[in-house]
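Recap from last week: sequence in, structure out.
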Amino acid sequence: MLIREIIEGAYEYNKTHEVYWRDLSPEQQEQWRRRRGPLEQRARRVYSRLVQLMPPEEVRAVRGVPVTVPIHGEMSWAAADYEKRIITVDLGCFWDLPDDCLAYTLGHEIGHFVYESKNPGYWRKRISAARRRQEEIDADIYGALLAYRLGYNPKLAFAHFTRQEQAAPFDPKYPNYPSVSQRRAAKDAAIKKDRDSRAQPPVPEPTVPPTTGPETLPEPPLSPAAKDDIDHAQHGIEGLLALLGKDPQVAVAMFPDPGMSTTALA
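Predicted structure tokens:
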């Protein structure tokens, strides 16, 4: 049965699809109806956080794209509908799963919309299964990096997304999808690369130059006129000292103040 083959952990996968809805009792159907609203609120809250972290030039890819949780989900865990521009989440699958799973799944669907916005109409084209598998891995990486940077746990998320039977590099039953082990390896490598690139090297201590005392500034150059004045004054002083050395009484005539001695001038 598809439900048991495809998912391990979320055993209510696709439980509310029309194919299985009629097998539920009226009480069970009402229980699932009551669950739809709370799950949709959770999904929209997680989706909003992811979009806020997207580069501004890529937000346009999902502008106006809502997330809904229909009662009768599609035959997938979650889906990006490019024509209707909507993302749907399977009620049965995600009701019991943590927000970590929602974050990585919604990030994956956002990645598809971003890729489609850069390659309009690519999903209509007939391309190889190998190319489709690579697109799935690219969407995984896009969503994983958004979820990881927001603090969601990648190990907890991927613990619930494991095929019970798979063959590498893909399950022949689903040739457009890579194996879970391959997807997990690509996701882990991308997160490690992102974590390493964001690691900041230690900031070196600032180098303080040794103290050498007050800085001696060079004297400003003298103008020619100032040099002449200094030379004249110096010659006058030298002449006066020579005269005083010959006749100390000159000082008495020049400085009659009795408190002034010739010794002080000498």
